[in-house]
Amino acid sequence: xxxxxxxxxxxxxxxxxxxxxxxxxxxxxxxxxxxxxxxxxxxxxxxxxxxxxxxxxxxxxxxxxxxxxxxxxxxxxxxxxxxxxxxxxxxxxxxxxxxxxxxxxxxxxxxxxxxxxxxxxxxxxxxxxxxxxxxxxxxxxxxxxxxxxxxxxxxxxxxxxxxxxxxxxxxxxxxxxxxxxxxxxxxxxxxxxxxxxxxxxxxxxxxxxxxxxxxxxxxxxxxxxxxxxxxx
Length: 232
Ligand SMILES: [Zn+2]
Known about the structure:
alpha/beta; 6 helices; 15% strand; binds zinc ion
């Protein structure tokens, strides 16, 4: 069974970058470290008299709707954004989330993003929390889980974010669900066309890499850890 956990800096990150992979999972959970209420909700701030609390509520509702279109649960840790700060107590919270869900696959941001102050912070926290939850894959003085595979989802400008695709997921069969999830994120409507185009382009790359002519839409991921297989 594939149990997938996506941890994003902001509440909408999972939709654009891993919505298809989430929809394909047997079971999936999405955790947002923040709502992206300050840095990624520009449309909402155009409303007169807007407040942080209201923006957070709207973003929570949007992310829940998107997650449910993909068949996933949504949880928000509400750490705040721009800047996202994760001290020792919050790190332990993230460790507990990973340990409690015990995913087979964990997905987060790349370690570099010159356009976003929070995405690399999320990477660092998730990477560290994963190691703490899994106890480096050996017996430890604390409860640990089987080490989840770690994948990075595709950032907005991959070349500048230290991102090289190593894995394409064929999302053709769930593309309608991804479109529905993207449509739920009304505060960032401008990204819907962009990521639909990206899925088509990655579909082209996936066809060329595999010869699987039926792939129309794909998502790209970067595998961080070696894959362990019984044979090549
Ligand atoms: Zn983000």
